[in-house]
Every structure is written in structure tokens, then in C-alpha cells.
Design goal:
Blueprint lengths: L2 E4 L4 H10 L9 H4 L13 E3 L6 H9 L6 E3 L5 H4 L3 E4 L4 H9 L8 H9 L1 H10 L8 E3 L2 H11 L6 E10 L2 E7 L5 H11 L5 E5 L2 E12 L6 E10 L5 E5 L4 H6 L1 H15 L5 E11 L5 E10 L4 H6 L10 E8 L8 H9 L7 E4 L12 E8 L2 H22 L1
Parallel strand pairs: 1-2, 1-4, 2-3
Antiparallel strand pairs: 5-8, 6-7, 6-8, 9-10, 9-12, 10-11, 11-14, 12-13, 14-16, 15-16
């Protein structure tokens, strides 16, 4: 059955809004800005909801590049048509379930409470504690007083760095970073606002990140969860997602096997809540204070689609010997150049056997998307890494040039 993809990419904000009773409209524009990210999963006949105009040249270019013909639509189907489509959201919240039901789609409401439970940091934190996987010093706090008390014991010097995370957080958002044993006024205000709404916060030591991986699984209603694959996460210095390295060799898989083992155990725990569907688990290799490399296998748990899951969908366009990455770049009107034109210039500097396929348009409703993306294909790992570095360097230079 053809699918109707709906990108409620502000999913965690929707869950937080259900908890806090606050508006979730601030991130609504993400539905349009990131809609093209669904291309990793789509097949011919699928529809992607994008309530804005796309350049015709972009959709024509997608077909020329080998992507299946899909329909970008700003209109909801009729109730009759909706019954012949499978509704696929980024994540299941009460808000998106009510919307889908109102539009005539058949939905399973049983997954809603489970999705809320599993996506709360409380769930993964408890698993970390029960299984002895948490970073040393990590703790859950429910009041400013307990936070200040923990910080006094947690920080042995003014140089000790830490991060404070909300119960619903994502991609380096809904968190505050601090140092030492005292709360700054901005962090105090941020923490107080969330604590007074009855939500816990989670304190962790800041560690030196070496590398990260995204482990993707599918949770069925019955039977063993399925491992969908692993990608190497490419994040910026703030920890925000900037891409996925799609093909990983046997050595990389062996390196992350302990995290995969934990992920499969986590998937079984998730299944017991009644949740079914996609799950993404982020794992991190880090260096401790003594310089020893350690593994945190359950850094983040997302019971929804993830960029890593979408990235793995691009594997079907590769030959057996090719390697690839899916890269994302923040894009601004102030750059004074369209993404495709910039890409044509930069591509001339890449190895000759490397190919680049844009997966986002230059304009959405006449404005550049906040995040531009491309599918990077190489014949060997060396050329792939070289090309990744060249593209990110060129983007950094663009940022510096335009201020």
C-alpha cells in the first residue's frame, strides 16, 4: 500500500507540550524544511506532505538522479483516498494521531502511550542505572535544591563540566551546559521552569566524545526486534547532527558490537511497553578523565524515525563496492548563493570517482531550506573521507566569509 509521509519533526516538542500544556507551534516550519529527508525511504507512488511550493527543476532532477518518482503534496487526501494510504509520521504523538484520524487515515492508537513512555529520558536513564551503564555521577533531579546539592558533590573543582538535560530533548536541544558547582542564573531559570511543571532533569558529566554511532531497529508486535543497521554519526562540535556515514565495514561493526548487543536488549525492553515501529539508539565512544576510551551504549533512545534510519534507506542506490554518506549543512539566505550552485563549485575539487546527488532543493516557498542535504557516493573509503572533509571545510569557509 502506498504511504503518506508526514514529518512532524518537532515530535519531542509535541510530547513536551502534552506534558507541560504549552504551545508546540514554534517548530512547525520543520515540516516543510525537512520534508525532503523522507527520500531515503520512499518508493514509487508514495506521497510526502510538504505544505509549500518546490521548484519543478528539483523534482525532475530527483528522477534523473535515480530516485523513485514520488509526489510532494501540500494537500491532504480525501477521506476515501486516505483509506488506501498508510500514514507514516516521524513519531507518534497524541497531536499527530488526532490529525491523522481527522483526515481519514486508519491509525493504531495503542502505540501512543508507549511512545510517550519510551521517548522520555526517564525510560532510558532507568535502563542505564539498572544495567550499570550510566556515566559516573549521572543522576535524576526533581528540584532546584536537589540539583544544587548534587552539583556540590558532583563538581570537585570549578573546571568540572556537566550537561543538564530535559526529560524530552533532541539533537543538542533542550539541554544546558555548565561548569563548576554553582548554577548560573540562565541555567537556574531554565531548570526552574521545567521542574515546576513536574518534569525531572538529568545531570551528566561532560565527556570527551571520540565517535558516535546510530543503531537502527524495528520493533514488531510479536517476535524478535529486527536490527536494521548501523551508521556512523557525523555531528558538529555542539553535538548537532550533520550527517551519517552509511556503509560501515566489518571492522567498524566489530568496534560497535558491544553497543549493538545492548541495543538489542533495549529493543526487547521497549517492546514490552507495547511500542511497535522504528527505534534509533545513539551510542558514544568517549575518553574518561584518565584518558581511557570508554563506551556509552545507550546515550539516546528515540522511539520514532531518525535521520540515521532514513540514511540507511539510501543504501539501495549503491553497488556492492561503493561507500556513501548523507550530509547536512545549515543554509542561510545571507550566503548569497544557492545550494546547488555552491555544490557544483565544490564538487570540482573532489576526487573524480566521487558523485554527489542533492537531496534538498534550493528553495521551498521561495526561501532556502534551513538545512540542505546531499548524498555523497565514492568508490573507496579514502575518497569518501576526503570528500566529506572538503565539503565541510568549504561550508565553514562560507560561514566565515559571510559572517
Amino acid at each position: 500500500m502506498p504511504r503518506f509521509f508526514y514529518g512532524n519533526f518537532d515530535f519531542e516538542h509535541q510530547l513536551a507540550g502534552e506534558t507541560y500544556g504549552t504551545s508546540t507551534s514554534a517548530a512547525a516550519s520543520l515540516t516543510s524544511s525537512l520534508a525532503c529527508c523522507w527520500l531515503g525511504l520512499t518508493e514509487a507512488g508514495d506521497q510526502i506532505y510538504l505544505p509549500a511550493a518546490l521548484p519543478r527543476e528539483f523534482t525532475e532532477q530527483l528522477v534523473t538522479s535515480g530516485f523513485p518518482p514520488v509526489e510532494f503534496t501540500s494537500e491532504w487526501p480525501t477521506a476515501k483516498a486516505a483509506r488506501s494510504l498508510t500514514f507514516v509520521p516521524w513519531g507518534w504523538s497524541n497531536e499527530v494521531a488526532k490529525l491523522a484520524e481527522a483526515k481519514g487515515f486508519a491509525i493504531e492508537t495503542g502505540v501512543l502511550s508507549a511512545a510517550y513512555t519510551v521517548n522520555a529520558r526517564s525510560f532510558s536513564f532507568q535502563l542505564e542505572m539498572d544495567w550499570g551503564l550510566a556515566l559516573p555521577g549521572s543522576c535524576r533531579v526533581v528540584s532546584l535544591e536537589s540539583l544544587e546539592q548534587v552539583l556540590r558533590a558532583f563538581s570537585d573543582s570549578d573546571d568540572s563540566s556537566w550537561v543538564l538535560k530535559a526529560n524530552f530533548s533532541m539533537s543538542a536541544r533542550e539541554r544546558m551546559c555548565g561548569r563548576g558547582s554553582k548554577l548560573s542564573e540562565p541555567i537556574r531559570g531554565w531548570a526552574a521552569k521545567r521542574l515546576t511543571q513536574g518534569q525531572p532533569l538529568f545531570l551528566e558529566p561532560w565527556v570527551e566524545r571520540i565517535s558516535e554511532a546510530g543503531i537502527q531497529l524495528e520493533i514488531p508486535a510479536a517476535g524478535e526486534p529486527t536490527l536494521f543497521g548501523l551508521t556512523v554519526l557525523l555531528n558538529d562540535t555542539r553535538g548537532q547532527y550533520r550527517g551519517s556515514r552509511i556503509n560501515v565495514d566489518d571492522s567498524t561493526l566489530q568496534q560497535w558490537q558491544p553497543a549493538i548487543d545492548v541495543a538489542q536488549r533495549v529493543a526487547r525492553a521497549v517492546q514490552q511497553t507495547g511500542y511497535t515501529g522504528p527505534v534509533g539508539i545513539d551510542a558514544m565512544q568517549y575518553r574518561d578523565a584518565e584518558g581511557t576510551m570508554r563506551l556509552r551504549p545507550l546515550q539516546d533512545l528515540n522511539a520514532r524515525y531518525t535521520m540515521g534510519r532514513l540514511a540507511l534507506g539510501f543504501q539501495r542506490f549503491l553497488t556492492a563496492d561503493q561507500v556513501a554518506s548523507w550530509l547536512h549543512f545549515p543554509w542561510k539566505e545571507s550566503y548569497g548563493i544557492d545550494f546547488s550552485n555552491w555544490l557544483r563549485c565544490v564538487t570540482q575539487q573532489l576526487p573524480s570517482d566521487v558523485s554527489v546527488r542533492p537531496t534538498s532543493p534550493d528553495r521551498i516557498e521561495g526561501q532556502p531550506p534551513r538545512l540542505a542535504s546531499l548524498f555523497l557516493i565514492a568508490e573507496n573509503a579514502t575518497d569518501l573521507l576526503t570528500s566529506e572533509a572538503a565539503l565541510h571545510d568549504a561550508h565553514n569557509n562560507l560561514n566565515q566569509t559571510t559572517g
